[in-house]
Amino acid sequence: MIKIAVCGSNGKMGQEVVRAVDNADGMTIVAKIDIKDGEFATIKDAKNSVEIDVLVDFTQPKSIYENALYCLNNNINIVIGTTGLNDSQIEELKNLSEEKGLGCLIAPNFSTGAVLMMKFAQMASKYFKNAEIIELHHNQKKDAPSGTAVKTALMMSKENPDFTSGNCPEVETIEGARGASSYNNIHIHSVRMPGYIASQEVIFGASGQILTIRHDSMNRECYMDGVLMAVKHVYENKDFVYGLENIL
Fold first, then answer.
1. Which of 147, 41, 36, 145 lies closest to 89 in space, CA to CA?
2. How far is Cα 69 from Cα 98, in angstroms, rounded to an integer?
3. What is the pLDDT of residues 78-89, one digit of tens each?
4. Which of 13, 101, 121, 198 could join 58 via S-S bond, C-beta 3.0 to 4.6 A?
5. Domain range spanning residue 163?
6. CA nearest 125: which of 152, 98, 95, 86?
7. Run of H or E residues at 63
8. Judgement on whether residues 160 and 213 belong to the same structural domain of the protein
9. 75, 124: one domain
10. Is 215 a known active-site residue?
11. Whether residue 29 sits in one domain with residue 9
């Protein structure tokens, strides 16, 4: 039986994780951690009271890095669904995971459809020299761009050195009009609007044609199969993984 703690258990994603684990075979919730009316206020409080095999974190960008460091330094495998980690933090967590022999899986998106969207975008990048990303989320999401958009751009950048081929010199008459320029000049545009949960489209252009690859999440249940898959993976393999596509 895998003993699971959920950090951010009272949030929308945290509540879904608790329900998913309650309905899964071979897993049990041993701690619900949340600064707002959780069974435990901190991971340390939970660790001092119960045995934890895997912690699932859906909290906030400002706390995820410290949460991950605590887990990996205290013999807890971790699945990270909170976005906002930068490249250097991810590299440090990778090194710490390998040093401690503990599982750490970071997934910007746990939806299998979204993961496929990212992989398809990477495939298309071999054949198009121009591309941009538009990501659309609810207006309570604090980080921008989304972790999914950043990961998508990183995957795409492995296939093409520059995604602004042939563009004329640009002048923004309003700062930020062209979005953020990420890996290999892939522009990312972030939309925050009530009504969305999570959507992303990657637009590719070439002479005489446009290719759009899009994924939309309609509810948070769609992430749960991926979360449970990630929990089993870190518990059994004790390795570092960045991106759910690496264990599908």
1. 147
2. 13
3. 999 988 899 999
4. 13
5. 112-217
6. 152
7. helix 61-72
8. yes
9. no
10. no
11. yes
Distance CA 149, CA 73 (A): 29
3 state DSSP class of 231:
helix
CATH number of domain containing 84: 3.40.50.720
Query: Which positions of the chain have pLDDT values less than 70?
Result: none
Nearest to 144 by CA among 193, 189, 104: 189
Q: So what's the pLDDT on residue 159?
A: 97
> Under a CB-based contact definition with an 8 Å cutoff, are residues 41 and 18 in contact?
no
Structure tokens at 7: 């950090």
CATH number at residue 139: 3.30.360.10
Cα within 13 Å of Cα(227), Cβ side:
27
Instruction: Please indicate, yes or no, whether residues 213 and 173 belong to a single structural domain of this protein.
Output: yes
Same domain, 210 and 121: yes
User: Three-state DSSP class for 104?
Assistant: strand
Given the residues 3, 100, 129, 141, select the one marked as catalytic.
141
Catalytic annotation on 233? no
Taking the complete model, does pTM exceed 0.70, yes or no?
A: yes
Instruction: Give me the pLDDT at residue 37, please.
Output: 84
Cα–Cα distance between 9 and 184 in angstroms, integer? 37
Catalytic-labelled residue, pool 32, 47, 137, 151: 137
